[in-house]
Amino acid sequence: MKYDYLIVGAGFAGCVIAERIATQSGKSVMIIDRRNHIAGNAYDYYDDNGILVHKFGPHIFHTSSKKVWDYVSNFTEWIDYEHTVLAVIDDKKVPVPFNLNSLYSVFSKKVAAKYEALLLEKYGYGLKIPILKLLENNNPDLKTIAEYIYNNIFNGYTIKQWGLKPNELDFSVTSRVPVFISHDNRYFQDNYQGIPLKGYTELFRNLLNNRNIEITLNTDYKINSSSIKYNKLIYTGPIDEFFDYKFGKLPYRSLHFDFKSINREWFQEVSQVNYPNENEYTRITEFKHFHRQDSKMTTIAYEYPQEFVLGINEPYYPIQNDDNNELFKKYKVESEKLKNTYFVGRLADYKYYNMDQIVGVALMKYEKEIANNS
Ligand SMILES: Cc1cc2nc3c(=O)[nH]c(=O)nc-3n(C[C@H](O)[C@H](O)[C@H](O)COP(=O)(O)OP(=O)(O)OC[C@H]3O[C@@H](n4cnc5c(N)ncnc54)[C@H](O)[C@@H]3O)c2cc1C
Hints:
Layout: E1 2-8, H1 12-25, E2 29-32, E3 44-46, E4 52-54, E5 61-63, H2 66-73, E6 78-79, E7 85-89, E8 92-96, H3 100-106, H4 109-123, E9 128-129, H5 131-134, H6 140-162, H7 171-174, E10 179-180, E11 192-196, H8 200-207, E12 213-216, H9 221-224, E13 229-235, H10 239-242, E14 252-262, E15 272-274, E16 283-286, H11 288-291, E17 298-307, E18 317-318, H12 322-336, E19 341-343, H13 355-370
Parallel strand pairs: 1-2, 1-13, 2-12, 7-15, 13-19
Antiparallel strand pairs: 3-4, 5-11, 6-11, 7-8, 9-10, 14-17, 14-18, 15-16, 16-17
Helix pairs in contact: 1-13, 2-13, 3-4
Flavin-adenine dinucleotide binds at residues 8-14, 32-35, 40-42, 56-61, 220-222, 236-237, 255, 316, 345-347, 353-356, 358.
């Protein structure tokens, strides 16, 4: 059979576009993925103890886009879940992103109240300030607060996470976790937040449940595509790989997850505890918090950042800085020369998209480019 579309990658990018093509354009789609499962990095599964775990690290759905929330809600119900994160600093557990409550966790009440008043006077309640901006302050007290946060939370975590110093990274990366002038301990302030009631993989099963869509797993585009007949290609894999690395490899950061089953009911207070300074891991996730599962056992994952090595581990985070963005542009120019071939997704766009962002990008790609051309 000849398919109207071949889609490479069964993550959010590929599956949202597949759903649109199948239901809105009525065309046939073959999705391939080289992994043995659908759902890309959002994949979750029940482990041996019946705990629903996220194979590629904790995934929390959050968005301020009603369009994205309404779209995804067609395929799942939600558990009301708002993410809160603690960081271990000098044996204390402190809310992050660092906020006004965090001040009271690390300083005496008197000092914290003084710093709180200063921050409120300078920035007003509710503002989010990237730490590198806060550091530019001339006021000695504000500088002390900024240096405390930078040295105790930001610097160590960034070096572990990226293998780079904060000033070697794009501002878009270093500003992702700002200082929050607020008593709101939630990690995200988006209007819509949740975890799919039956998990992400089930959400993807619903997305792909259409007779116009076929899925083949354990299938690599580079190795197998010549045996598949199709008219148009949608590619969500790494763009440098598509072009056989002809301009060089795009750098990524990778991760190693060490899962442990523990014979006790709960391990930690919240789903995510960060370790900015001590230990080689950056965070520990306890998955039971997401679905509030009733079990005498619990499962946790230690997360160790690593250098990405082709063929050895997975490309998780694009390392965005000027040099790498320039290299990406060369591939982008090449991709624009191809007819009937669309590039979309975290790996194809070399962008650190959250799930809601890639859903939005995929919907837009379908509406603006694919629908008119199918
Ligand atoms: C540790 C971690 C935590 C995260 N937490 C959150 C979170 O809490 N909230 C949030 O909103 N976002 C989070 N994200 C981001 C989220 O994972 C991405 O936004 C989302 O997965 C992007 O979807 P995608 O389809 O572009 O890419 P992917 O999910 O990576 O899917 C791409 C798929 O393409 C396949 N593929 C690639 N090349 C080929 C090939 N040659 N042949 C066949 N198949 C191929 C891959 O196997 C993969 O399955 C997190 C990411 C990571 C790494």
